[in-house]
Every structure is written in structure tokens, then in C-alpha cells.
UniProtKB/TrEMBL annotation:
<dbReference type="InterPro" id="IPR025877">
    <property type="entry name" value="MobA-like_NTP_Trfase"/>
</dbReference>
<keyword id="KW-0032">Aminotransferase</keyword>
<dbReference type="GO" id="GO:0030170">
    <property type="term" value="F:pyridoxal phosphate binding"/>
</dbReference>
<dbReference type="GO" id="GO:0008483">
    <property type="term" value="F:transaminase activity"/>
</dbReference>
<dbReference type="InterPro" id="IPR015421">
    <property type="entry name" value="PyrdxlP-dep_Trfase_major"/>
</dbReference>
<dbReference type="GO" id="GO:0016779">
    <property type="term" value="F:nucleotidyltransferase activity"/>
</dbReference>
<dbReference type="InterPro" id="IPR015424">
    <property type="entry name" value="PyrdxlP-dep_Trfase"/>
</dbReference>
<keyword id="KW-0808">Transferase</keyword>
<dbReference type="InterPro" id="IPR004838">
    <property type="entry name" value="NHTrfase_class1_PyrdxlP-BS"/>
</dbReference>
<dbReference type="InterPro" id="IPR029044">
    <property type="entry name" value="Nucleotide-diphossugar_trans"/>
</dbReference>
<dbReference type="Pfam" id="PF12804">
    <property type="entry name" value="NTP_transf_3"/>
</dbReference>
<feature type="domain" description="MobA-like NTP transferase">
    <location>
        <begin position="3"/>
        <end position="120"/>
    </location>
</feature>
<dbReference type="InterPro" id="IPR004839">
    <property type="entry name" value="Aminotransferase_I/II_large"/>
</dbReference>
<dbReference type="InterPro" id="IPR015422">
    <property type="entry name" value="PyrdxlP-dep_Trfase_small"/>
</dbReference>
<comment type="similarity">
    <text>Belongs to the class-I pyridoxal-phosphate-dependent aminotransferase family.</text>
</comment>
<dbReference type="Pfam" id="PF00155">
    <property type="entry name" value="Aminotran_1_2"/>
</dbReference>
<feature type="domain" description="Aminotransferase class I/classII large">
    <location>
        <begin position="280"/>
        <end position="594"/>
    </location>
</feature>
């Protein structure tokens, strides 16, 4: 068995990164693609490795010569790499193909060694390595039958994304027997190049062969092995987070992205906090049905958006404004005072980060085991001379909840003290009480009482970036509105507000399901010996780890099993090992419980 690597391309989409080197010399976490690939192949007892060069040929050859590779390497030059495609590069290796069984790879791949082991250990002689099509993938796809025979190969320009779940993407790693290459593939390759020219792709030849009744070439499906194709700077960035030296480093790189986790399709997100039971499939169908118009048309301006938001919460549009996520409104609201601001910590840090250090007056609930009441807040800030008080209820990350009676009393206390009160109730819909202060019965109590709410969390639509700010003081709301762009809300977010009224009952039912799931989840977590589970009225639970369990070690273990959790050590800074777990569906939660039990069995004596 020999290896053939196609490495003649220019890698134009990587722009300046490949200005003076080939694409396969690009590094992922300190190691180039070609070095990683050659080191893996060097352990597979290949007779030789043929590398087709072109762009920056001498640079690549010198670089490879500097590596410690024991397998003999033969270079084949494609002198017209800038005028041809990979069909020509592969045709230059025709003689080699006819001499031995071949493992064929493209040089812009990064993969785990198990990927190569999978195809080499398969007894079938002629295989195309494939994986389930995902949104990040680009290029030729296949349709397979139940016997792994290739039914069709679909060029990327002919892909129908409604059928995406039926497609398999070629990994661009193939295994050809000498007999297949000599009597089938090479003859077809030469004939196709002669008929269609050299600016084509060798996959086109595979497509022709796949249509033959002989069914000589079959597919080998991956089942979770990691690989990535590096075409542009985004691919490189994602590969950096996938292929790290250790899982702790991978955890840091993934969480530092602050979202965009659809790029990791197998990842189950227990870090970010959204309603797993809403929107319903029916609502998503309606959004999909209108997607063409929404993406091609401008959204309405602020007046219409405020009208829709007011209708949703049953208040006047004069009492509400809508932001591109709650974060946009938090920033504007926190700039309304230069005085001292009271915070109950630990909490959502966006508020604290929006004011100066000297403005912050902190009520630290770590000393109270993260449990506090409305009266505790009044007692603490009674003599602190604050001008503004920020309260998140339920709190994040503790899940501590102050009921509506205490909130009512806190509003009156702030009014008496002339303190501006900002209440963030982004998670309040998940509470058993489910009482919202975005109502005239609360807003009319005090001119300087404001409610901020992230629609993303309770309604399960973080991609829409919707947040609202409500209050009686319409003059201040108008003042903040004028600081925002006229089109700060996109068409998808507007459409969500437009149709949500039809799905209010579905939303209510989703909250009921979430509360039941939370209770089941908490009870199961409490059975785990090394966990202390804090009471929560939100869609997450905070846990303290004991028996020497380190939160980062646990997070790394779970990430190895495609689950992402929130490590709270730095946020809480209380010399304890703390994590936060979102509440997801019952099935997902039970899978997590099983992994937590497994971790306890493997890592705790």
C-alpha cells in the first residue's frame, strides 16, 4: 500500500496566510497539516508516499525534508498548477496508481489517526471515506444505499439542502486497489480528462464509475471520528478549537467563541441557557416558509417593533423598547447614572462590566451560600447611598428567586429611597410562580422602575437577538431609543414578534414541561455523591463538586463526550469547584446523568 497526497493547489481563499507557502503548510495549533498527515501515514507501513506539488514547490519540498519521516517520499510536479484542477494532478500519478494499492488524500485535511485506521482496516478493497453532511461542509456529496453502494454523486452546485439529511460528504480520502486503478479508474481518468479538459475534478470520474453496475467502489461511513477540511480562515479557526493537545485547551477555545455552536453539530450545549421546548416545530415551519421574504426584505423601524413588543406583553408601546438582544439595552441603561450602583453578586457580568470600578457597590452572596431575600437586599443597601440597584431574578448562575411579593416591597423601598431599580427577569418565566413585572400593575408603581428581559432565553430564539426594556418613564425610553440604530432588529426577529401571539399556548405548555424536566433533573443530580445541587427557579442548576472532583476535569470529560457545560470557578472565585448545567430535554438530561455517574466511577476512588 502506498499513499498519494495532492498538494499542488494555491489555497487562494486563505489569502495572506498562503502568500509564501502552500495550504498544507498552514499550521493548526503549532503543527502544519502536512506534518500531521505525514506523521500519521508514517505509522501505517506504507511502501512510499507520492506528493504532487505545484504552488511553492521548492518551499514545500524543503519543509518536508526538514521533517523526520521514515517512509520514502517521491515528489511529482504539476508545472501548470495555476491552470489545472486536481484531475490533472492525479493523472500525473497514473503510473504509480497502476503499481500498488493506494491511499489517496488531499493535503488540506486535518483528521484523527482513527480516520485512517478505519479505512485501512476495512476489508473492502475500494472505498471512499464519507461523513454525514453538515452545514460547514463544502464540495461533492454522495447518496448511498443500505449496502454502502454509491447511488449518486452530487456536485455542490446541485445540492438541494432540503435533502441534506440524505447526503454524505466525501472526506477526500480514498482507498483504491491496484487492480481497480489499472483497469477502471486510470482508464476513466484519462478518457475524462481528454474529453473534458484538465480543469476538472477527479471526483467526476468517481461519479461515472459509481454509475456502473459493477459497484466496485463503495463508501465507508465515519461514525464520530474527527476531521476538517481547511479552505479559508474560518475553517482554520474552527480546526484550532477541534484539534487541540488536550481537552481543557479545547474547552477554553470553544467557550471563548461565545456561541456559533452549530459549527460543532455533535455538541450538546449545557452552557448557554435557552428553552429546549420552544419554538415548536409548527412555529419553525412557519418561519421557514417565510424565510425567502425575510432574508430579502428590510425589517420595520423602531415604531412598529415597539408596537409588536407592547402587544406581546400587554402594555403600551410607549412603555417598551426592543434591543438587539438584552445586552444592547443593558449597556445603554447602565450609562444613565454616574452615581453608585448596587449589585447582588455573583451575577450576569454584562451589567457590572458596563460601569466603572468606583461606581460598584457589591452585595456578595457567597457568604450566604447564594441564598438571599428581598429583605436581605434592603438591609444591605440601606446605608450604601446607591443611585441605582440591579437585580437579576432568578439570578444567574445561582437560580435564587425572589417572589413577587418581595419584588413589590423592593420597588416601594427603592421609590422611598429614590433609587432607580433595574430588574432583569430573563429567566422569570421558568419559575413556578411565573409572575412577570412587565405589566402595568408593576410598572405604574414607580417612575424609575425598569424591567429588562432577554426574549432569547425563555422563548428559545437566541439567534434572533431580541431583548426588551420596559418602564413607565416613556421620556427616558425614548431617549434610549434615539441612541439605537433605526434597524437594530432584523427581519427574522420582527417576524417572530409578529407571529408569537398565535403560539402563546404552546409557549405556556413549554414552560410547564421545562419545570417538570428541571425537577426530574435536580432529583437525579442530587443522587450523584460528589454533587451539591442548589435550589433553582431558572432553566439551569448550579452545583458544587466535592470528593476532590475538579470542575475543569469534569468539563473536559464531558466535552470528550460532546457535552459542553459552564465552569464557574473564575466567576465565583470562592475556592470551590462549581459548575452550572442548563436544563435540556429529559432524554438529553438522562444521558448527562449517565455520564456524570460514569465519571464518578472512573475518577473517584
Amino acid at each position: 500500500m502506498q499513499g498519494i497526497i495532492l498538494a499542488a493547489g494555491m489555497g487562494k481563499r486563505l489569502k495572506n496566510i498562503t502568500k509564501n507557502k502552500t495550504k498544507c503548510m498552514v499550521e493548526v495549533n503549532g503543527m502544519s497539516l502536512i506534518e500531521r498527515m505525514l506523521k500519521i501515514l508514517d505509522r501505517k507501513d506504507l511502501s512510499r508516499i507520492i506528493i504532487v506539488t505545484g504552488y511553492q514547490e521548492e518551499t514545500l519540498k524543503e519543509y518536508i525534508a526538514s521533517l523526520t519521516i521514515h517512509t520514502p517520499i517521491i515528489f511529482v510536479e504539476n508545472p501548470i498548477y495555476d491552470k489545472t484542477n486536481n484531475i490533472y494532478s492525479l493523472s500525473l500519478t497514473a503510473t504509480f496508481l497502476e503499481e500498488e494499492d493506494t491511499l489517496l488524500l488531499e493535503s488540506d485535511l486535518i483528521f484523527d489517526e482513527t480516520v485512517i485506521d478505519l479505512i485501512l482496516c476495512d476489508p473492502r478493497e475500494n472505498l471512499a471515506l464519507v461523513d454525514r453532511f453538515e452545514s460547514w461542509m463544502d464540495g461533492t456529496c454522495m447518496l448511498l444505499d443500505e449496502n454502502d453502494c454509491i447511488v449518486d454523486m452530487v456536485a455542490k452546485k446541485n445540492l438541494h439542502f432540503v435533502n441534506a439529511d440524505q447526503y454524505y460528504k466525501t472526506v477526500n480520502i480514498y482507498k483504491f486497489s491496484r487492480h481497480f486503478s489499472k483497469y477502471t479508474y486510470v482508464p476513466f481518468l484519462k478518457a475524462y480528462a481528454m474529453a473534458m479538459g484538465n480543469n476538472e475534478y477527479y471526483e467526476s470520474v468517481i461519479r461515472l464509475i459509481a454509475m456502473l453496475d459493477t459497484k466496485e467502489l463503495q463508501a465507508r461511513r465515519l461514525n464520530g471520528q474527527r476531521w476538517y477540511e481547511i479552505d479559508d480562515i474560518q475553517d482554520l479557526d474552527i480546526a484550532e478549537s477541534l484539534f487541540t493537545d488536550n481537552t481543557e485547551e479545547q474547552y477554553k477555545k470553544i467557550t471563548a467563541r461565545y456561541g456559533g455552536f452549530w459549527r460543532y453539530p455533535k455538541l450538546v450545549d449545557y452552557c448557554y441557557l435557552v428553552n429546549p421546548y420552544f419554538p415548536t416545530e409548527h412555529m419553525l415551519e412557519e418561519i421557514r416558509a417565510n424565510s425567502d421574504r425575510l432574508i430579502m426584505q428590510y425589517p420595520s423601524g423602531a415604531r412598529v417593533i415597539r408596537l409588536l413588543a407592547g402587544k406581546l406583553f400587554g402594555i403600551s408601546d410607549k412603555k417598551i423598547i426592543v434591543g438587539n438582544g438584552a445586552a444592547e439595552l443593558i449597556r445603554e441603561m447602565m450609562q444613565e447614572t454616574n452615581g453608585k450602583i448596587g449589585f447582588v453578586t455573583p451575577t450576569f457580568e454584562e451589567y457590572i462590566n458596563c460601569c466603572k470600578q468606583e461606581q460598584r457597590v457589591i452585595m456578595d452572596t457567597r457568604k450566604m451560600d447564594f441564598s438571599y431575600s428581598g429583605q436581605d437586599i434592603q438591609d444591605y443597601f440601606e446605608q450604601k447611598h446607591i443611585q441605582m440597584l440591579v437585580l437579576i431574578n432568578p439570578d444567574n448562575p445561582s437560580g435564587n428567586y425572589i417572589d413577587s411579593r418581595e419584588i413589590y416591597e423592593l420597588i416601594h423601598w427603592c421609590k422611598k429611597k429614590k433609587i432607580c431599580l433595574i430588574l432583569d427577569e430573563s429567566f422569570s418565566d421558568f419559575s413556578d410562580e411565573a409572575e412577570s413585572c412587565i405589566a402595568d400593575s408593576y410598572l405604574e408603581l414607580y417612575d424609575e422602575f425598569y424591567v429588562i428581559k432577554s426574549i432569547s432565553k425563555s422563548y428559545g430564539v437566541p439567534g434572533c437577538r431580541l431583548g426588551i426594556l420596559a418602564g413607565k418613564n416613556s421620556e427616558k425610553l425614548d431617549q434610549i431609543q434615539r441612541k439605537l440604530p433605526i434597524w437594530n432588529i432584523n427581519s427574522y426577529a420582527e417576524f417572530f414578534l409578529q407571529i408569537i401571539e398565535k403560539y402563546k399556548e404552546d409557549y405556556r405548555l413549554s414552560l410547564d414541561r421545562l419545570r417538570k424536566s428541571r425537577e426530574i433533573f435536580r432529583k437525579e443530580l442530587e443522587k450523584i455523591p460528589y454533587m451539591k445541587v442548589y435550589p433553582s427557579q431558572a432553566n439551569y442548576v448550579m452545583c458544587e463538586l466535592s470528593d476532590g472532583v475538579k470542575s475543569r476535569k469534569l468539563a473536559s470529560f464531558l466535552l470528550e463526550n460532546n457535552i459542553l457545560i459552564k465552569v464557574l470557578n473564575e466567576k465565583l472565585n470562592n475556592q470551590k469547584e462549581m459548575i452550572r448545567l442548563a436544563v435540556r430535554t429529559d432524554e438529553e438530561n438522562m444521558h448527562l446523568i449517565e455520564l456524570l455517574e460514569k465519571f464518578g466511577g472512573e475518577y473517584i476512588e
